[in-house]
Amino acid sequence: DKYEMRCVAGEKGMDKAVNWVHMVEGLAISEFLDGNEIAFTTGIGMPDDNDALLELVESIYKNRASALVINIGPYIKEIPDMVIDFCNYNNFPLFQVPWHVHMAGIMKIFSEILTMADRIDMEITGAMENAIFFHDQQSMYIPMLEKNGIDCELPYCVALFFIEKLEEKESKRDSVENAIKHIVHDYSGTNSKESFVFSKRGMMFVIFKNCSYDEIEKNVKSVADYFVRLGGIYKDVYCGVGRNTKSVRCLYKSYNLALKAMKLQIRRNVPREAAVYKKMGVYRTLMAIDDMEIVKEYYNELFEPLVRYDELNKTSLVEFLKVYFEESGSAVNTAERMFLHRNTVNYKIHKIEEILDCNLSDFDTKVELYIALKLSELI
After folding, report:
1. Angle, helices 342-356/317-326, rounded to nearest 10 degrees
2. What tens digit of pLDDT does each residue of 250-291 get?
3. Are 10 and 91 spatial neighbours (Cβ–Cβ below 8 Å)?
């Protein structure tokens, strides 16, 4: 082509997402990369030294650029083998263009393409939001998705992330969103039309298109691991994953399940571990109950006397009963887990039976109380 741009290394990394372009003429400038940019360099001001160029390339790669374009000319006469080897080893696309080609022209072309892609991404994201929050009004999202080549009849799944204290650093929201996009796209090897990442209502949304639950789980784990490594203000992240839908028209159902699953993790204080609807056992049925007043009424009818007793006597019999059920009704295991004497466990069991006027040896009673405790976590 007229720009004579040629890939010389890292061809296996050509599926990386690209958000923008950036001129990088030194190590200090490489630190300003946000990730997913195509970096351009002429080598101006750099020492005429192969090691210096390698150090720059390594820094650009470390700061998560998607590719690098080197202008071959008076400052960088040729790309040394050590740089090509590094890029091949790390699947980092490396391009070269001759000096007579204007880099500004190439950057302009990329900028126009990316601006158009950004507009399309915004249209798709807006349509996905409408599919979730205005699902009955299909005219608000189906035509826009189809116009942008999105197959609405494939299965979709919503994963939600609540990143604690994110609101305190609003200026960092875009970089966090870009980081999640980078992880999702890098893991799945897809472009923005296969997975969709955006922030809304204080949460991060990741919508997966036509992915298996195994793929979704691994991808979500990669995102959670990113925040563990990041540490600091973003240390705690809570995640819920909904179910695969029949089509984009049912996306709101996956969102509602993901939201309930994520809130459950928050109430349990279980960060960095996704609650996946597919693997949530009895919760899969309980989460389908939309009327929380019925849930509250059911729980209160069974547990109000025990809750009131705990409040008046500064005891924790409700929590004890949860552990007792989690240990399959084994007094021995409950005693070991709670560091109690066996007689103390038996005393607490009898006390609960007395307060609730029930028999914990009866299977139906156990089931009823167990379900009520599970429901209480969804209130």
Report:
1. 110
2. 999 999 999 999 999 998 889 888 999 999 988 888 888 878
3. yes
